[in-house]
Amino acid sequence: MANVSVYNMEGKEVGTIELNDAIFGVEVNEHLVHMAVVQQLANKRQGTQKAKTRAEVRGGGRKPWRQKGTGHARQGSIRAPQWTGGGVVFAPVPRDYSYKLNKKEKRAALKSALTSKVNEQKFIVIDELKFDEIKTKNFQSVLDNLKVNKKALVVLNENNQNVVLSARNIPTVKTALTNTINVYDILNNNTVIVTKDAVAKIEEVYA
Description:
The chain has 207 residues and is of the alpha/beta class. It folds into two domains: 2-45 and 98-206, Ribosomal Protein L4, Chain: A; 47-96, no CATH class. Helix content is 34%, strand content 15%. It has seven helices and six strands; from the N terminus they run E-E-H-H-H-E-H-E-H-E-H-E-H. The chain has helices at 21-24, 30-44, 103-119, 136-145, 161-167, 183-188, 196-206; strands at 2-7, 13-19, 123-126, 152-156, 173-177, 191-195. Helix 2 (30-44) crosses helix 3. The longest helix has 17 residues, at 103-119. The two termini are 13 Å apart. This is Large ribosomal subunit protein uL4. Keywords: Ribonucleoprotein, Ribosomal protein, RNA-binding, rRNA-binding. GO terms for molecular function: rRNA binding; structural constituent of ribosome. One of its GO terms (cellular component) is ribosome.
């Protein structure tokens, strides 16, 4: 099992913790990780694009000029695609881009993402995160103490409003609960900061 240091909010090492190899020490499957990221981004797409075909554009019911004798090419409608203001050929319509991954594939991808962060030494365990008041400056000082100056994902075991709201105004920080973590957020952030309680919950749920 991998041993990682546990820090307090002042950035001082206060102990170590053994991580479960079934979650934090698996063989990284890049293909599954890629599938999970693509699926999540696809599921976020609204799919609300819409353009009108020649059947839906208003007007164009009358033939613009007679078939022969004008010197122009034959035309049947001023709403044909080659006309300005005409319909669009194969126009996009609202659609659902989402699709599903098997539960085992999603869990394996999440474990691979967590393992990759542990291997890169970008997985920080903190003994607790508690604030007496909502203050962005307090949260920023914790990041400074942990020497985290890039994008960070902070994983909490429970929804602590003082912590969540203190972090909300920091553009490089995203907070998540153990039941809402996903592969994209883990990979999209340089560092993953997890409380000891959250580590225990993750091992309980995904082991």
